[in-house]
Write a structure and sequence with these properties.
By secondary structure, the chain is mainly α. It has one domain. It is built from 7 helices and no strands. The longest helix has 55 residues. It is elongated and about 85 Å long. The N and C termini lie far apart (74 Å). Keywords: Membrane, Transmembrane, Transmembrane helix.
Amino acid sequence: MNWTWVAITLVVVALIGWYLSTTAGRLDRLHRRIETATFALDAQLLRRSSIAIELSVAGVLDPASSEVLAETAHDARLATDASLQVRVAIESALSEVLIQALDDPEEVALLRADPSMADLMDELSAAIRRVELSRRFLNDAVLACLRIRDNYFVKWFHLAGHTPLPQAWEMQDRTPEGLTYLGA
């Protein structure tokens, strides 16, 4: 009878060990996925701000819009080392400025009449879409990670180690109507 209890105990301990090991591995993969998604989002945000600066100096927008766009895009480029809250606010401000400058489909259609500006508008539209997708991938990974880290076993056995809780990016990233109007 004693051997039966020993065998059952060993099986239960082995199952718990296997569960903890697979959960820790999954958590580690999610943390790496979050890190990779963060780097991808950073790259797309830098690309978007670079194109916005290029648009601001092209001389096709009114001077006030060009000035505001240039300043906001420059602030976004410099904010790469800022805290998450500050960076989200700055990137959302850039999104708002782009929406204000390019929300009228008729004005954007006039800009697209110039072939070089059409290419720039296509690049900007693609960059905005990539920012949105990168942010969604990051937020999906963060939510999955937070769900696992909320598990009692993960907390009790400290499977996340000293890794800080990941944070989602909640920012304004709507594509301006002028860029979505003509299938851009």
